Amino acid sequence: MIFIKNKRKIILSYIIFYLLVALILALLSLISVAIMLASELFLAVSILAFLRLHIADVKQTVQIGDEALVCKSFIVNGGVADAEIPYEKIEKIEVKRKHLLVYVSEEKPFAIRDNYINYPDLCKALCEKCKEKNPDVYIYNAK
Fold this sequence. Notes:
Blueprint: E1 2-4, H1 7-29, H2 33-49, H3 51-58, E2 61-64, E3 68-76, E4 79-86, E5 90-95, E6 99-104, E7 110-113, H4 119-133, E8 138-141
């Protein structure tokens, strides 16, 4: 079962963020032309610098397979990474309203945010599959 992100929600949030930044920079441009040019250059460089991460954020998918949880295009420590996590290594799952925290043995937890299509189904399917493969997994529902 593959879960994909709600692309409209993510793209809209990026558009709003960059429009607000551009608006603030336009207000600074009223002071002088040099400040305007520097701020527009800053905006263009920041968009280009983070373009790869923005594209990866839109392309993120979570696949609940038979033997492992497959996460594609996740952003880890400023880079894009894919992971295949066996259900036996998952120790704990915290289900919250806005995100799902998955604790993997001897690692920091990673979050699956609520911006996936059918997010409640994702939570339910992941918890069921983990319980099926690893009865010792602790599932904490913090709603």
